[in-house]
Design a protein that fits this description.
Length: 273
């Protein structure tokens, strides 16, 4: 259906009126661009630039490093303040997408978390599924990292370079939860829901979500890009089948807690730092 004509109440001329269906599509497309531009789309852009910088720096990727969690200040409580502020600010897009997905009537927060399966309706099942997903993703992911290092397409990933304070491990756990929430809510729950509403085929939605997930890990090299893209496909299929993000958040949190806290506690003993 093309545009229709309607009288202009100001000058009496006829003006084209946009097809409501097309208007909704344009609004949703703009919404997706804005949400990603405020969150993981921006991270992907910076990661690509970072990778270009590494590739043109001279040394091979295998001789370079990427630090995931680093100190922001040598002063302990200032560093803690920066860490907590960064976590809080990063989670704002999660609140934004929950608001955008919420039903206009009733309890907004409850309707949004229920729509994404981010609620506590099935805690034991979510925990078991999350642990199983973490196991399925974790070991192959570690293998891809090792292979990438051997091939020279992956940098040395320093999971934590925080100084050792009483708050270091709790902050690393919070960082893991933060990463899980923003990635699974935005890249899986929100993005796949919106692309489905736009009528995208499943394969295209899955590919977009997976490539985006891999892209904001490109600062670590090509191995992590591939590993995270595969993880994105697995998580997208789980969401399609189950309609629940919570198990994905649990799985992602477990993976990052093991990586972050494990590195912080044992890197020195293993000669990794």
């Amino acid at each position: 259906m093309g545009p229709t004509l309607d009288d202009d109440p100001v000058n009496g001329a006829t003006q084209p009126q946009e097809d409501p269906t097309r208007a909704v599509r344009r609004r949703l497309e703009a919404e997706i661009v804005i949400v990603l531009g405020l969150s993981l789309g921006a991270s992907a852009l910076y990661a690509v630039i970072n990778l270009v910088g590494k590739l043109t720096a001279g040394p091979p990727l295998s001789a370079q490093r990427a630090t995931v969690n680093s100190s922001a200040s040598p002063r302990p409580y200032l560093d803690l303040s920066y860490q907590l502020a960064g976590i809080a600010v990063t989670l704002v897009p999660v609140l934004l997408v929950l608001w955008l997905l919420a039903e206009p009537a009733g309890d907004l927060a409850r309707s949004a978390v229920r729509a994404l399966g981010l609620d506590g309706a099935s805690p034991l099942r979510d925990l078991l599924h999350g642990a199983a997903l973490a196991a399925v993703i974790g070991l192959p992911g570690l293998g891809l990292y090792v292979v990438g290092r051997e091939l020279g397409i992956t940098v040395t990933v320093v999971a934590s370079a925080l100084e050792e304070y009483w708050w270091t491990v709790p902050v690393l756990i919070l960082q893991a939860v933060k990463n899980a929430l923003i990635e699974e809510v935005v890249v899986v729950g929100y993005l796949l829901t919106r692309l489905r509403r736009l009528g995208w085929p499943t394969w295209a939605s899955f590919a977009t979500s997976a490539v985006l997930r891999g892209s904001y890990h490109l600062y670590q090299g090509f191995g992590p890009f591939l590993g995270n893209a595969v993880m994105g496909l697995v998580f997208a299929e789980y969401f399609r089948r189950r309609g629940r993000v919570m198990p994905l958040v649990i799985a992602h949190t477990l993976l990052d807690v093991v990586a972050f806290v494990g590195y912080q506690l044992f890197a020195g003993a293993l000669g990794l730092s």
